[in-house]
Amino acid sequence: MELVTQGRPAAAVVLARPRAAGGRPGRLDAVATSVRPDLEEVFRLEYARVVGVAARVLGSRDQAEDVAQEVFLSFGRSRVQAGEAGGWLAVAAAHTALNLIRSGRRRTSREETVAATEHAVVPDVADTVLTREDRSRVRAALATLPRTQAVALVLRHSGLSYAEVATALDLSPGSIGTTVRRAESALRKELNRHASSD
User: How far apart are CA 156 and CA 165, in angstroms?
Assistant: First the structure.
């Protein structure tokens, strides 16, 4: 099931509740009754942020949208209060994106297809290769960090304030700066370690 169908959130599509012949409830009626009443509103408010967090980790808008779909489906089955949805969704997006990297199921064919069809000035092939290798190293290094540090770093660099990161991770606001600095330091060490081994 896609979360966005012709520009409309799935909640709107599912809530349409088509009926079977004879006016009897259709198959989607059972699904529609299990949809959270606040899903569409939360989806509209938080979708861009969820995709942004996932894209920061994955470097691919297409993959980030896939992650967002999975995250919103999980949210739809959860009992998370709508007021806490923003932080919960951001953390879920970061976790899901990191899991995708860690599992090795990265799909780059879409990026390559888009890059091959662009008619803009073609950059030097060596620069393109180096840029991709650099991004790949950063993502691999990010995947080695402790989960809390990695998520805090991703959320902070996705534009969330220290207070928002603290709320999302259920940490004290005073500890977020330290957590982010430690994550940045660990990330630098991991990148340097890989650079010296090359």
Answer: 7
Q: What element of type H or E holds 100?
A: helix 85-102
Q: Enter the pTM of the model.
A: 0.56
Residue 67 phi/psi, 5-degree rounding, is: -65, -45
Question: Is residue 68 within 8 Å of 51, Cβ to Cβ?
Answer: yes
Cβ–Cβ under 8 Å, residues 190 and 144: yes
Q: Residue 142: which of 129, 156, 121 has the closest Cα?
A: 156
- Express each pLDDT in 30-89 by its tens digit: 444 567 889 999 999 999 999 999 998 888 899 899 999 999 999 999 988 888 888 899
Q: Which two tokens stand for residue 64?
A: 């980030």
Encoded amino acid at 158, one letter:
S
Rg (CA), the chain: 20
